[in-house]
# Entry
Amino acid sequence: MEATLRPPRLLPSGDSAITVEFSQHIDDAANQRVLALDRAMTAAPIAGVTETVPTYRSLLVHYDPCRIEFESLSEKLLALAKIPASPNARTKHWRVPVAYGGENGIDLEDVAKTLNTTLEEIVARHVAGDYRVAMIGFTPGWSYLSGLEKLLHMPRRQNPRILTPPGTISIGGVQTGIQCLAGPSGWHLIGRTPMRTYQLHREPIFLLEPGDRITFFAIDEKSFAEQDKAAERGELVAELMSS
Amino acid sequence: MTRLIVTSIGPASSVQDGGRHGAQRYGLTPSGAMDRLALAAANTLLDNTPFAAAVEIGPFGAAFTARDGGVRVALSGAARSADIAGRPVAFDSSMTIPEGETLNLGFAKGGAFSYLAIEGGITGDPMFGSLAVNARAGLGSPYQRPLQAGDELPAKAASGAPERRIELPQATGEPIRVLFGPQDDEFADEAKQLFLASEWKISPTSDRMGYRLEGPVIKHLHGHNIVSDGTVDGSIQIPGNGTPIVLMPDRGTTGGYPKIATVISADIGRLAQTTAGTGFRFKAIGMAEAQMEAKKFAQLLRSLPDRLRAIESVELNLEALHDANVAGHAVSAVDAETWHPPV
# Structure
């Protein structure tokens, strides 16, 4: 764990943003530090900082150079990054329904074949996982989850698809993810959730926060259709656990 | 109710403002005007707030008709031929479209985007503080998509205030300034030198998400995949084929290609107005200079009201304004000689 004690690298992203880089790899300990720094900056805002964007390995800090300069902000960020990562009491735990396979997860059979096992085994292992939202990015609500067990790791597709369905649950490399809107993806599509991570005219518009805990449970196609309608009406569909 | 009808419009034309900030952590792109100075100039001509919502008009022609009352508007950004019912009008000035008459705009000259501001600003239902269009996310007001012929923009009845022009710094054709990073260590010194020494052109496949550049191949040291991290307006990504993409306001919030450098904030509008096929170069500067330029740009934006001028004689000024337009105002907004400090 000594890597986690290293100070982060402060990389300029132009004149109005700093990338605070804790690791160059997908690294759970680094992600914990990213989220801890993000929380620290929410708890004690730095004047001139306009927005933060947590990712697996770094925190992008947008700022107004008319209000705070690079050197001064860098010092403050290095000081805050020394605070050890601690569990966030406000982190939510969501149980997310997923219809696996069939039309909802057109790659599930291929994944099972490639990993030399059965569809049932893939689903059983995927729902047994305990995941965390490592970052949200790319398109609105696209949630990248850490915690995928090694047996389910699978390189991304050679040919990304131009259009994949909204709510897709997929596997890409060492990650699993929840995609909200229809869009391109090079990941393996194993199922779909009726839950909307992004839904206008619902409170909250964005359901998940970086750091949230996620577990999945399997539902059948009929339940998917029902819950999809409920979600369209603005219901959360996912279960918020009281942990 | 008074309104402005979009009688004809080309692609890449949409309602834009200062952008949607605060939700990049949820994957929501900021959107907003490609050329913030031009947006602010058009709005200032009408005493609107600088980043009020206006029409961003892409390279093709457009026409707007006033209905149920005259509509006062202002034009800035890439110059075009412009007339109201056949009477020529000038860019970087305000004007009133009489009831039932049409403002006709030709193709953009010497730039890519023009801005049509409406007196009082375009009004609608902001989401995350912005009316800017983000079609993928279903955001934008009054339309959640680029503008089409037949669309209607609410307006207030023309105030009859005296028309004005605005004096903006002249275009300079200086290199686009960049700061190296955040992933310049993914490139050998030779690759960074090649990046700075080469002439680049904007590819015609560019859009509001990113400007693809044509020029030499920039090689990576360790391959083209990095673990995704956050992006900014002006991030210069080098994908697997080695041809740079400069990320623009409709960018993805995170990206997985190494970013060799970042265009300074003061020069993004100038890059946005660089037309496909026009050669340009990059110049690397240091952080202190980049932040000084950002401050000068902010001061230029604040000084816009001091740059307003009365239009005394329409005929006399049309010619002068036309000349100014031909020079375009893909400006070096930070040219010390043309920069006027705010009062």
User: Anything to note?
Assistant: Chain B has two domains: 3-166, 176-294. The mean pLDDT of chain B is 91.
